[in-house]
């Protein structure tokens, strides 16, 4: 079972309204943040390669590297497989990211088939590739495939937003936040959008670093 697919702003609004009925705290957060972003992205090889490029570097650095990769036409599996290490280093990839890019290029993932796979199947398929962890797989499933009921409890911003919103004594662990999120089914992806948006509001208010 795939469940709901988030395709439009109306889908996000529907999920947010349902969550507000489930949880007064989320209703408060939603009131503080206003309209939530759709955040839909393309699916496929390039999106995952971009996620690998973005790991452990600033947004600006990731954008610059990705721009060079697009200019050099190094965003597809065949191009990565054919490129030399020198070619990939020239656009800014580290030795480790070159390995991850090559692993992704030879993984043979059927991205069209993932559109019809269950959330668990998608995540299990993606994390078999070195360089793609659970967080990346969950975010891809949420935003590239539009799944309405996926969450990313390992995300530090979500953990911190939950700590502030629910007045917890400490930031919840990944396991604790995953358990908390169970009550937000079948709209956990929208709950994540609310918490990410609320994190930005709370950061501005309290100077969180």
Describe this protein's structure:
Helix content is 62%, strand content 0%. It has 2 domains: 89 residues, Endonuclease Iii, domain 2; 99 residues, Endonuclease III, domain 1 (Orthogonal Bundle), CATH 1.10.340. The relative contact order is 0.16. The chain contains 13 helices and no strands.
Could you tell me the number of beta strands?
0
Report the β-strand fraction as a percent range.
under 5%
What's the CATH H-level superfamily name of the largest domain? Hypothetical protein, domain 2
How many distinct domains?
2
Summarize the biggest pleated sheet.
Answer: none
Distance between the termini: 40 Å
Mean pLDDT: 95
Residue share in helix = 55-70%
Number of helices: 13
* Class computed from helices, strands and strand pairing: mainly alpha
List the helices and strands and how they pair.
Layout: H1 9-22, H2 24-33, H3 45-54, H4 59-71, H5 77-82, H6 85-90, H7 95-105, H8 111-114, H9 119-126, H10 134-143, H11 156-165, H12 174-181, H13 188-206
Helix pairs in contact: 1-2, 2-13, 3-7, 9-10, 11-13
Q: What attributes does this structure have?
A:
single chain; 209 residues; mainly alpha; Endonuclease Iii, domain 2; Endonuclease III, domain 1; 2 domains; 13 helices
């Amino acid at each position: 079972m795939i469940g709901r697919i988030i395709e439009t702003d109306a889908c996000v609004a529907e999920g947010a309204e349902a969550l507000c009925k489930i949880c007064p705290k989320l209703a408060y957060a939603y009131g503080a943040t206003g309209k939530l972003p759709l955040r839909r992205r393309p699916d496929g090889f390039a999106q995952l390669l971009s996620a690998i490029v973005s790991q452990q570097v600033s947004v600006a650095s990731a954008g610059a590297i990705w721009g060079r990769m697009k200019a050099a036409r190094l965003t597809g599996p065949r191009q990565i497989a054919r490129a030399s290490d020198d070619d990939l280093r020239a656009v800014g990839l580290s030795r480790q990211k070159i390995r991850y890019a090559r692993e992704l290029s030879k993984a043979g993932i059927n991205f069209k088939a993932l559109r019809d796979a269950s959330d668990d199947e998608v995540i299990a398929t993606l994390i078999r590739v070195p360089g793609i962890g659970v967080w990346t797989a969950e975010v891809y499933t949420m935003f590239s495939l539009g799944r309405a009921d996926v969450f990313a409890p390992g995300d530090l911003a979500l953990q911190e937003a939950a700590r502030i919103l629910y007045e917890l004594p400490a930031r919840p662990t990944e396991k604790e936040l995953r358990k908390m999120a169970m009550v937000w089914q079948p709209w956990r992806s929208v709950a994540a959008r609310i918490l990410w948006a609320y994190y930005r509001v709370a950061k501005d208010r309290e100077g969180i670093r």
